[in-house]
Design brief:
Elements lengths: L2 E7 L6 H5 L8 E6 L6 H8 L4 E5 L6 H11 L5 E6 L3 E2 L3 H15 L4 E7 L12 E2 L8 E4 H6 L12 H11 L3 E11 L6 E5 L2 E5 L4 H17 L4 H18 L3 H16 L12
Parallel strand pairs: 1-2, 1-4, 2-3, 6-9
Antiparallel strand pairs: 4-8, 5-9, 7-9, 10-11
Helix pairs in contact: 7-8, 7-9
């Protein structure tokens, strides 16, 4: 099993190297793709000295989907591609166990799985051996067969960020492939600045994304729900829930609601790609 990896950077902190060390030894090559507008020279120097690492600075924020497609194109000759973000790391021994599980699964059902995934929130089913079929997998910690990812068209760059992983998974399943999760493989992953709240006995959480992220999340959800009508109700429900949570519990409410409205308009009107401020 020839395994390449890709990790996307955006203003990375000092923890990124220690995160990479939790999986690098199991890879044949790692593409470190930097979306930072003006990357630190020390970062380039750091990665240039690490064996098996190929560092590429785009010089601008090109988005997650662009970076994933760059890695796919660069991964010719490899069987699989591990996709990671800078805030994630594997628990000790998990990456080797992950590879072994995939190799065993491919012997039993070759070329049936379009995405392999892990347990990223340490749910109680972490002790369950084997795998389970799921509908979507997040980018970080996923391992995808390179030839299958290319065959279904790669990642949708019009999304830029947010929903890139979900849309890819919907397309994978539409093309007849499975998405499998190994519950016993643990990945530590950050989903934002999560806070917990209670109102009238109802408990809920918020991730407190900034206004621009709210724009991308809203716009891209509308794009995806138009493309895949079967999940339309779920996406509409989540857009409404996000608005309510901003009003009830998050800071910078006016700014965020304004950008959510912009996202709705651009999603409906198919104004996609990187956000450009204009008179809405």
């Amino acid at each position: 099993m020839r395994l390449a990896g890709v990790i996307t950077l955006y203003h990375p902190n000092k923890n990124v190297l220690s995160n990479i060390k939790t999986f690098l030894d199991q890879l044949d090559i790692l593409y470190v793709l930097d979306n930072t507008e003006n990357p630190d020279i020390s970062i380039k120097k750091l990665f240039s000295e690490i064996e098996k690492v190929k560092y590429v600075a785009f010089g601008d924020n090109m988005g997650i989907a662009y970076a994933m497609n760059y890695a796919l194109k660069a991964s010719d000759g490899y069987d699989f591609l591990l996709t990671m973000d800078q805030d994630s790391h594997f628990m000790p021994g998990m990456m080797a166990k992950y590879k072994q599980a995939i190799e065993e699964q491919e012997k039993i059902n070759p070329q049936r799985t379009g995405v392999y995934s892990v347990n990223f929130d340490q749910r109680v089913d972490a002790v369950i051996p084997g795998y389970k079929k799921i509908d979507v997998a997040i980018t970080s910690g996923s391992i995808i067969p390179v030839h299958i990812a290319k065959a279904v068209g790669g990642f949708d760059e019009t999304l830029f960020i947010d929903e890139v992983d979900n849309e890819f998974c919907y397309r994978i399943k539409k093309n007849g492939y499975d998405i499998l999760e190994f519950p016993s493989i643990i990945l530590k992953h950050s989903l934002g600045h999560q806070t917990f709240h209670q109102i009238l006995g109802f408990h809920y959480n918020t991730f407190n994304h900034n206004a621009l992220r709210k724009y991308y999340m809203t716009r891209n959800r509308i794009y995806v729900l138009k493309k895949y009508p079967e999940i339309r109700c779920w996406y509409i429900k989540n857009i409404i829930k996000d608005v309510i949570k901003v009003i009830l519990a998050e800071n910078d409410k006016k700014h965020k609601i304004n950008y959510i409205i912009k996202g709705m308009r651009d999603g409906i009107n198919n104004h996609m790609g990187k956000f450009i401020e204009y008179n809405h």
